[in-house]
Structures are given as structure tokens and as C-alpha cells.
Amino acid sequence: MRTGLLLLLLATPAAAAPPGASSCSGCHGAPGGAVPSLSGHTAEDIASSLAAFRTGARPATVMNRIAKGFSEDESRAIAAWLAGGGQ
Amino acid sequence: MTGIGRRAVLAGLAAATLPRPALAQGARGRVVVVGGGFGGATAARVLHRAGLAVTLVEPAETYLACPFSNEVIAGLRPLSAQAFGYEGVRASGVTLARTSAEAVDGATRQVRLADGTTLDYDRLILSPGIALRFDALSGYDAAAAGVMPHAWKAGAQTELLARQLAAMPEGGTVVLSVPGNPYRCPPGPYERASLIAWFLKTRKPRAKLIVLDAKDTFSKQKLFESAWKALYPGTLEYVPLASGGQVTAVDPGEMSVATDFETYKADVACIIPPQRAAPIAAQAGVADRSGWCPVDPVTFESRLMPRIHVVGDAAIAGAMPKSAFAANAQAKVCAEAVIDLLAERTPSAPKLINTCYSLVAPGYGISVAGVYHPDKGVLADIEGAGGTSPVDAPDSVRRQEAAYAEDWYRTITAAVFG
Ligand SMILES: Cc1cc2nc3c(=O)[nH]c(=O)nc-3n(C[C@H](O)[C@H](O)[C@H](O)COP(=O)(O)OP(=O)(O)OC[C@H]3O[C@@H](n4cnc5c(N)ncnc54)[C@H](O)[C@@H]3O)c2cc1C
User: Fold this and answer.
1) Which of A16, B139, B149, B226 could form a disulfide with B20 if both were Cys (CB 3.0 to 4.6 A apart)?
2) Is B22 on the interface with A (CB under 8 A)?
3) Is the predicted pLDDT of residue A25 greater than 90, yes or no?
């Protein structure tokens, strides 16, 4: 039964997106373009990038402006959702 | 795997994906989406992916995208680069009704289609885009648009303006008329002005562009104005409202464009008239006296008619601009809210992002971004976030933003139509 639940969770195409997360795929798509793809990154990677964009530690054209719209917790939730295959 | 191990994996998964599978908790019902543009096609795909029965109503066989259509006008790309069929949407499993919605009855929850059929809905999503107002500017009606194109819907109008510019005499004058707010794509007229100026400067250096504006301030203004000063002095003349820029009448026979102060003779005139939501919105009873549709900022449900949601250009989305990026972002949030509502869950407050790129010349991109949340009943800017590209950025940043613009277009059109 547990295995069944596990499969169900795995098979679910996408859990509901945390606030802001579903907007990301407006720019971030398949690998190979000018805008980096978000697929294949861990939640920690994404969350720390967002944190660095927010403080300005990581230079950017637009992500610095966008990351400032999210708290640390919101950024982590977005990162977890993206790393879990949300789009 | 031991029992504990499985539980740990489950807990990990639940934490990673947030424990709320979109459909698992029983969203049921019929959803109809009207309009297969950036908003509607997106909403239909999200709903279908969640396992709901959804019909997308769209009469066109091919969608012609407006973003980058200013490049078509300047001869920088073919119109075919703007064309997207619906094969991808159909292949994704969405049911398509290739006809238009003629009437919505909010009481019986039915949509009557032009082909005579009727669709029942539990929730209806409208993303019908805009209508150009041919009653707002003296002399500017549908026939006048055949002479003085608006080119504010991509297609034959875009090609007409491109042809007129290419055929214009060497030392000719182009007049571009820009409406007051709100309208589709706030920075769009200024991107168009920039790319027409680029076209003139490179192909017809003695020609001039006069931009007549019904307002004094506009999106990315500092960036546009400093680029115009650097790139197009002597080619582009900008006349704001305060200097008499508001166009009050046009005469397509005379090829003249009049303000209260002056009448301009044009060789080519591009008139972007005031706009409103596409006619089905008023028909459905979801447009207010402004011509646009007030909505709830969490669910995009109409303030005027229950169970009808409005996204994209037709909606009054507070601080969010009428952009393809915004229509796509709103459609995703709205579709998730509809899934929740059909499962009798309360949708949680969303956040939405917008990013709009403009080209002021080939390889020279600028952007404006915003992050929005529901605040006091409207979608408001989150303070401290968003804003425009820096005014003093080096060429490398402009080049990078131009590349990002192209990639944005590739990605969003693939997500919506691919
Ligand atoms: C020159 C220009 C440049 C632009 N550049 C950008 C840009 O760089 N970035 C950006 O984000 N945005 C840009 N935009 C804005 C963007 O095109 C719009 O914001 C976007 O198309 C809005 O999407 P929508 O779904 O609301 O409407 P639309 O894309 O217009 O789609 C509406 C659809 O509904 C259909 N429809 C209407 N009525 C009915 C009916 N009764 N029954 C069935 N179907 C119906 C129509 O056929 C149409 O396909 C630009 C616009 C212009 C004009």
C-alpha cells in the first residue's frame, strides 16, 4: 500500500505550485538556450542562487530584480517545487 | 527498502513537492476555455494535465503572436516566425473547438458556439484578448485601418505596415500614434518606434519618424529616451501629451493625423487606437464600463459574474501589464485556482511574475520586471522588487538582454503551442 502511495506521488504530474513558482517557466525552458534551464538542479542549488540574486552577491540582468520579490522561505518552497519537476 | 526507509522517502517527497497533488483530491467538472492565445492555450493545457475535461474554443487555425512582430515591421524577421499551429495543443490532449464563442449564459452556464453547438461548463475561463476601438478616434474606423494600419494584432496588419515602410519615399515621414493607458503591451509602441527608427536610419536615412503620444510618461521611458538620443537623433521625434501629442482625428484620404495643435502629413501612418476587452467579454457580462474585466486577484474569477474567470489582456489585473508573459503566468495561477475550486478547496494567495523585453535596435535589449501579489483586492506590485534594466549598463548587458528576449520567445511559445 505504501508502495502504491509512493507511485501515486511519483506519477502525479505536478503538485500545486507554491506562490510565484509557476511563473518561472515563462522564461526558463529546455536546456540549450541563452536563459539557463532549471531542470537537473537540486533544490539547494536553486535556493542558494535565489538568495545570491536577492542580495546582489550574484550578478544578473533580471533575476536580481525578481528574486527580491520573494522571502527566504518562499524561495525555498519554489526551489523544492522546481527540483521536484514542477513547471 | 525497510518500512522506515519508505516512510522517509515519502516524507522527503512530500516535502520536496508540497503535499498537494493537483487532482488527487477530486477536482471534477467541465471547464471551457475561450481564446487560444497566450492565456487561453496555457490554461487549457494546465487543466488537461491535471486530468480535467477541458474544451478550448478558438476559431483560428494558426495563432499569430504579437511579441517580436515589431521586428517583422522593421524587416528583421518574416511573419512566419510569428505563426503557431494548434497541433501541439491538440496532441497534448486538449479538446479543441475550432469556432468562436458567440454567447455566454452565466445563469445556465452555457457557451453557444458559432457552429451551432452549446457547451456546458462548471467553470469558464475567458482569455479573448483585445478589441481595437474604432469609435474612439475621429476618422479611424476599420476601413481607415486598411490605409493607416494599427498592426496591434499580428497578421495582415503587420505585413501591411512592413510593406508600406519598405515602399516609402526616401525622405518620407512616418507618424506613429500611441494611445493613453490601459492598452495591450505598454512598452510595445516605444519598441515599435525604436525599430522603425532603426529601419529608417539604415535604409532611408533622410526619412523621419514622429511619435505622437496621448500621455507624458511610459514604460521603460528613461531607457528608451536615452537610447533614442544615442541611436536616432534627427530621425525620431517624440511629442508627449504635454507638447500636444494627443491625436484627436485622422484622415486616411489625406494621409493626415491631427492633434489639437497641429496637423501632420504622413507617408506612412501607424495608428494604435484605444482598446477594450474582446467583444465576448461584454457579451458575457464580465466587462465593466471601462471595457475591461474586473477580477479577483487570487482566482481571476470575474467580479461581475460567478464561475467565469478572465485572464490576459482582457482582465483588469491591477499593477500587472497586458503582456504575453503576464497572460501565461495568470493562466497558470487561474487554472490551479479553478482546480482547487472544483475540488471545493480554497485557493491560496498566489504571487505572479512579469518580465517584458523590448528591442531598441537589433542586439540591444532592455527589460522591465515585476513581482505581484493580491493586496486589498487587487494585484499589487511587491515593493522593492522588479523595475527596469539599469540606464547606464554596458553594451554587453544590452546584448545579453536581446539574447534573453529571443530565448524568452522561444521558450514561451514552445510551452504554450509546442
Ligand atoms: C506589437 C506588440 C508587441 C508585443 N510584445 C510583447 C512582448 O515582447 N512580450 C510580451 O509579454 N507581450 C507582448 N505583447 C503583448 C501580447 O501579445 C499580449 O499581451 C498577449 O497576446 C495576450 O494574450 P491573451 O491570451 O490575453 O490574448 P491573445 O493572445 O490576443 O489571444 C486571444 C485569442 O482569443 C481568440 N478569441 C477572441 N474572441 C474569441 C471568441 N469569441 N471565441 C473564441 N476565441 C476568441 C482570438 O482569436 C485569439 O486567438 C505585444 C503586443 C504587441 C501588439
Assistant:
1) A16
2) yes
3) yes
Band of residue B14 on the pLDDT scale cut at 50, 70, 90: very low
Dihedral of alpha carbons B307, B313, B319, B320, sign: positive
Residue numbers of the domain that contains B307: 16-129+278-348
What is the bridge-based pairing of β-strands B62-64 and B387-388? Answer: unpaired
pLDDT band of A11, cuts 50, 70, 90:
very low
* Chain A CB contacts of B14 below 8 Å: 9
DSSP three-state, residue B316: strand
Angle at B373 between CA B292 and CA B26, to 5 degrees: 90
- What is the domain-level CATH number for residue B222? 3.50.50.60
Ligand 1 within 6 A of CB of B353: no
Q: Which of residues 56-75 of A touch B (CB under 8 A)?
A: 61-62, 65-70, 74
Look at residues B245, B271, B297 and tell me which one is the last residue of a structural domain: B271
Report which residue type is found at B402.
A
How large a percentage of chain B has pLDDT more than 90? 93
Structurally, chain B folds into a number of domains equal to 2
Element (H, E) at B251: strand B247-251
Q: Output the residue whose Cα is nearest ligand 1's atom 6.
A: B67
Residues B266 and B285 reside in one and the same domain: no
Give me chain A's average pLDDT, please: 87
Residue B354 to residues B47, B200, B250: CA-CA distances in angstroms? 22, 31, 34
Given an 8 Å threshold on Cβ–Cβ distance, is A26 in contact with B384? Answer: no
Sign of the four-CA dihedral B108, B113, B119, B122: negative
Residue A53 to chain B, least CA–CA distance (Å): 12
Q: Quote the mean pLDDT of chain B.
A: 94
Cβ-based burial of B12 (10 A; exposed 0-12, middle 13-18, buried ≥19): exposed
**Cβ pair A15:B333 closer than 8 A:** no
Q: Whose CA is nearest to atom 45 of ligand 1?
A: B35
Identify residue B33 by its one-letter amino acid code: V
Cα separation of A11 and B20, whole Å?
Answer: 13
For residue B280, give the ligand 1 atom closest to its CA: 41
Ligand 1 pocket residue status of B356, Cβ below 6 Å: yes
The model's confidence at residue A14, banded by pLDDT at 50, 70 and 90, is: low
Say yes or no: B194 and B310 in one domain.
no
**Are residues B200 and B287 both part of a single domain?**
no
B219 lines ligand 1 (CB under 6 A): no
Q: What cell numbers appear for B379 in the block?
A: 494585484
B341 to chain A, any CB pair closer than 8 A? The answer is: no
Per-residue confidence (pLDDT) for residue B16, from 0 to 100: 41
